[in-house]
Amino acid sequence: VTKDIVVEIERIQRHKPFLGGFRHKLTGLEFHNASAQTNPKQQQWSGVAKNCRDTQTVDELMQRQQTMIDSATQMTAIGVFVSNVTDNLIAPKPYETADEFLVKRLNAVIKIQSYARMWAAKILVDGMKSDKLRRLDWEHMEEIRKKKEKENRIKAEFERRMNPKSKEDFDLLYHALENWRQEELDIINETKTGPERKAALCWLLDQETQLIAAIGRHKIQAGAESKENSIKQFLNKASAPKKWRTFDGKVTKMFTPYTQRANELKDIYSSLTMNYLTQDERLDVLLTVKHTVLEHDCKLTQEIVELIDREADLLMRSVKDSNLEGLRKRVATLFLQYCKTPTFNPEAARLVKVPQDPSVLRKNIYYCPSCNSYLPSTEFSLSSNSGVAGKCRRCNKIDNDARQRQDYSNYVFMLRNLRQTEEKFGDQSRICFLLQEEDLQYLVENVWGGQSAVSAWDDLYDLVLIRWNQFTEWSPWNCILLTKDEAASHQRMENLDEAYGSVFINKVKQKHTLAKNFFCRLRGMAERMRDVTPNKGARSAKQTTPIKSS
């Protein structure tokens, strides 16, 4: 029985070492052992570098070489003339010893080094000069910038006083009025006595009364303008389309039936408040308003329809526009109330301040003892040391205008910069969002004396509150009042003990102790906010928990 066996032979390109075998005596063929076809065994490296003897020896070969060059020299002799015009006369020089040669070489090295060092020093000096010029230019530009900023600030403040529009502008006016009154009162008390003093005080009272009346007229005008702007802003927000950003970064807008309804009401209100319309155009607008409000039957729409019919009848009788001004204001006011009602304008439900659910009104309601009103918690400004709700914002504003007349615009600006700086750290700093303007005023004026801790600069527009220790969240007991330039240098410091002296550090720590004793409740409030909202950012700290009145 025969059986074929297939044997696979692997042909490799490497040289196989001879591991034994035999040779046929008759034919002379060599047969190797089968292990010669297997891969060689991999030897593990012991970690010790080893060299064989062959790599340690060098084979040298000594061979002599001699170049044979034949040269001939011809000179003037009998019958031979050789011109010496192009010859050079070489005179022997003094003999130079090895020591003299080394000294000469050392002097040459010194000279080369001196020129090289002079070149490097010249480059260094030129660089220092250019740095100095750039520094001087930067200081000049900074001085111009600061001067321009100050001029713009004074100009803006003057514009705020001449044309006040916001509450902060009127606080500034009342504060300036109080400063003027105090100066005049001091002059009267120092220079006059008896009946003359009483007459001067009466004159001062009359002047103050006239100035307060002028401020009141400005306030009425600003209130009318702000009311118009708020109405336009409300209608624009209600009619704005829904927006969202898609995956490719583009903004998608969508108009819903509610936004289209709000846009229609906005156009009608704009036409209704438009002036200088002809009689036919005004009648068309009134007819449009009438058809719009007749979609709903209620007391408000009935009153609007009644006023529209009255104005249309008066227009047909050719009544002057000046006599219809009051009637048109009533129509516009009632139609605006129609636009703000969520039943007729569903988009207004998310913009009105008063919630539609009555159960919500019973939550977080507090009593104001000054105006005898029950108001939501957002109408009360609570300081860090408040134990009760106290007066509402409106009553505090009236009391401030009548008595203290303090201007918190500087502290509002400082507090806004502080919160923006703390948001950039991203470490969920919350204490700065619990402070109010009154708290910051106490911290700046009573603790830090209203001036920089380093240079004693007292301009509040140039002062900022920053962290004393950059690795700990901001707090009244971890802050320092510095100018903007000093704050930039302080933030680059890594070791405060090396940067400041021990006397200055003890002074700062003493102020920290005073602030910590006054704002002792802030730490507990911040910890409570972290427990309630552990995953929210620093912006959520603005929503403080109101304190119930006892």
Structural class per helix/strand content?
mainly alpha
Mean pLDDT: 84
Global morphology: elongated
Number of strands: 8
| Estimated radius of gyration | 48 Å
Unreliable spans: 534-550
Span between termini: 115 Å
What report would you give on this structure?
- The chain is mainly α.
- It has 17 helices and eight strands.
- The strands form four sheets. A two-stranded antiparallel ribbon has the order 1-2. It has a two-stranded antiparallel ribbon with strand order 3-4.
- Helix 3 runs antiparallel to helix 4.
- The longest helix is centred in the first third of the chain and has 65 residues.
Summary of the model, kept short:
This protein is mainly α and 550 residues long. The protein is built from 17 helices and eight strands. Strands 1-2 form a two-stranded antiparallel ribbon. A two-stranded antiparallel ribbon has the order 3-4. A two-stranded antiparallel ribbon has the order 5-6.
Search tags:
mainly alpha, 17 helices, 550 residues, single chain
Strands, helices and their partners?
Elements lengths: L20 E3 L6 E3 L20 H4 L41 H65 L4 H25 L3 H45 L2 E4 L5 E4 L2 H16 L6 H15 L5 H18 L8 H16 L17 H4 L3 E4 L4 E4 L16 H12 L4 H17 L5 H4 L2 H11 L15 E5 L11 E5 H8 L4 H4 L2 H17 L3 H11 L18
Helix pairs in contact: 3-4, 4-5, 5-8, 6-7, 7-8
